[in-house]
Amino acid sequence: PVDCSFSGGVCDWKQDADDDFDWNPADRDGGAGYYMAVPAFVGHKKDMGRLKLHLTDLKPKTSYCLIFTYRLVGERVGKLRVFLTNRKRAPVWEQDKGKDERWKTGKIEIFQGAETNNSITFESERGKGKTGEIGVDNVILISGLCPED
Length: 149
Fold this sequence. Notes:
Residues 2-148 form the MAM domain. This is EGFL6 protein. The structure is a single chain. The protein is mainly β. The chain contains no helices and 11 strands. It has strands at 2-3, 12-15, 24-27, 34-39, 48-54, 62-73, 78-84, 93-96, 104-112, 119-126, 133-143. Strands 1, 3, 4, 6, 9 and 11 form a 6-stranded antiparallel sheet that branches. Strands 2-5-10-7-8 form a 5-stranded antiparallel sheet, with no helix packed on it.
């Protein structure tokens, strides 16, 4: 597997220069490394912050699985979406806050067709809330289909 965690790993993470705010590193509970987060009070309602994972050397006509942990904490904190390069208009994954504020695992199947995906974008949309945050951590890309739980 390719480890794209923020504390190390081989992936190339870039903040999008055309968005409204940046994702920032936040310390993990227990202090082992950090995750990327957007506090709820950053920006104005509907503002977007995008964090791009640039992928290189993915083989065409191959399946991959993107696995990551995420957390949405706080009232009306907003939305977290994931986009693939070649499907810019529609997110392949989207989540707003549920009842549960714990870290959860997201999985996305990526099929490299003739047109290859060369980036994955995590987009945070600011909600109405003033407290809480949206966080992403432990991003891993593995070859093959996503494993069953």
